[in-house]
Amino acid sequence: MKTKLLSLSLLLFSFWFTTWAQLQTVNMNTRDNSQDLSGKYFKDIDGNFDPFIGVWQGTHQNTTMIIDISKAVLGPSPGNNYAEDVLVADIQLIEGMGTPMEMVICNTATAYSHFDKLIRSIIRGDSYNGITMSSALEDNCHPGNSAGGIVVMNIQNPQASPLTATWEIERKGIVAKTYPGEPDFIIPTSIVLTKQP
Question: Can you give the residue ranges of the DUF6705 domain (predicted)?
């Protein structure tokens, strides 16, 4: 059994490595979804993701949101013969932060620790200008349920230190449908975030 499992693992790694080695690196800003994407790795060559990477924090009412954004590579995978850089994030929501009543009400890094950050991420976003990041979002802070939407994060002044950004969530597109029993968002839908040093 162990031999079969090892053989399967080696076969999958070989497929992934062979596919990865054949990909042509392309600036993600030149991506055209009407063209064939096969065989390409859409890379953040211009560094448009860099201003977003790091830890951001903001408070709405009594809840502090801490979001840790990083860059990851999505793909290639069977049936998806291209790869792309994406922004991914773990999130913590803390009520009464800094008080004796402080309580973590959501931590995607520990709640979904059996997954890597790319899979458990609440976002898989991108930025083509280094000022606006957009992404589908899944608020998975609900036990056994989630709320979906689109998040847009806009850096207010790229020359400021520290950076601040608005974070706005809307139900849009396919994820806009509200099904019976679908929860409201636990993650703040409108908040100003400050990048932490």
Answer: 8-108
DSSP tag of 160: -
Single-letter amino acid, residue 168: E
Candidates 150, 77, 137; CA nearest to 108 is 137
Cα 105 from Cα 186, distance rounded (Å)? 9
- Burial of residue 101 (CB within 10 Å: 0-12, 13-18, 19+) is exposed
Amino acid at residue number 104: V
Q: What is the pTM (predicted TM-score) of this model?
A: 0.80
Q: What are the residue ranges of helices labelled H in 1-134?
A: 2-21, 108-111, 117-120
Pairing relationship of beta strands 54-60 and 40-43 according to DSSP bridges = unpaired
Residue pair 194/163 in contact by the 8 Å Cβ criterion: yes
- Most distant CA pair in the chain: distance in Å? 58
Q: Residue for token digits 């004796």?
A: 100
Distance CA 165, CA 65 (A): 13
Q: What pLDDT shows up at residue 123? A: 86
Mean pLDDT, all residues of the chain: 82
pLDDT higher at 111 or 155? 155
Give the confidence band of 7 by pLDDT, cuts at 50, 70, 90: very low
Q: What confidence tens digit (pLDDT) does each residue in 96-139 have?
A: 999 999 999 998 877 665 566 666 678 889 999 999 999 988 88
